[in-house]
Amino acid sequence: MLSSVLSRSDCADCRFCCSFRRKSLWETPLFDEETVEKLRSLYPDAHFKPRGDAFTIDIDDQYRTDDSEEEALCPFNKNGCILGADLKPFDCSIWPLRVMRYNGGLAICLTPTCPVISGKPLSVMQELADGEVGDKIAAYAELHPFIIKDYKEGFPVLRVI
Ligand code: SF4
Ligand code: SF4
After folding, report:
1. Distance separating alpha carbons of residues 32 and 132, to the nearest angstrom
2. 107 and 73 together in one domain
3. pLDDT of residue 15
4. How many angstroms separate the CA atoms of 1 and 104, rounded?
């Protein structure tokens, strides 16, 4: 969904948003139940656990040390995401944009850690959030509130929805 600002080659050598330190596990991808059932039959080695009204990957047993900086990779990243558009979580398709609880309402916010997006002017992402992309994100969040996350200090608020 963000192909106008993130190309395949941008992401080819970077898997930052597909691997997780323990303190980043709140960001693991979210799947609805129907998708999880399909993934369980296609990828029996992948593990899932409930999170709210949805499911996420269970990678707790992937950590090998007590180092808080250790990263564990999403099981669907094999030199890039192996999930097709029908199985890839919406959350992943909009990253680094996020829908967050903000000031008693909801807002589209920007995760500040994508190395490519953080090198662009904020106005680029502002334009996306204000336009059709932001409209689609707001509509999806209304129907699938499980993607809504708590606000994190320091995340730029692009659009209140
Ligand atoms: S962090 Fe940004 S550049 Fe890296 S893979 Fe994710 S979206 Fe692509
Ligand atoms: S589902 Fe795909 S895009 Fe999402 S975290 Fe896993 S590998 Fe990355």
Report:
1. 24
2. no
3. 84
4. 27
Question: Is the separation of the CB atoms in 97 and 125 below 8 Å?
Answer: yes
Asked whether residue 112 falls in the same domain as residue 152, the answer is: yes
Choose which residue among 1, 2, 5, 6 to substitute to test ligand 1 binding: the one with the highest number of ligand atoms within 8 A of its C-beta.
6
Q: Which of 55, 57, 76, 93 to mutate to test the pocket of ligand 2 (most atoms within 8 A of CB)?
A: 76
Q: 6 in a domain, yes or no?
A: no
Q: Do 79 and 125 belong together in one domain?
A: no
Q: Tell me 61's DSSP state.
A: G
Domain containing 152 equals 96-160
Structural domain total, the chain = 2
Question: What predicted TM-score, i.e. pTM, was given to this entire model?
Answer: 0.92
- Distance separating alpha carbons of residues 141 and 101, to the nearest angstrom: 11
Contact 109, 144 (CB under 8 A): no
Do 22 and 67 share a domain, yes or no? Answer: yes
pLDDT (tens digit, 0 to 9) for every residue of the chain, 161 residues total?
Answer: 898 999 888 887 788 999 999 999 999 999 999 999 999 999 999 999 999 999 999 999 999 999 999 999 999 999 889 999 999 999 999 999 999 999 999 999 999 999 999 999 999 999 999 999 999 999 999 999 999 999 999 999 999 99
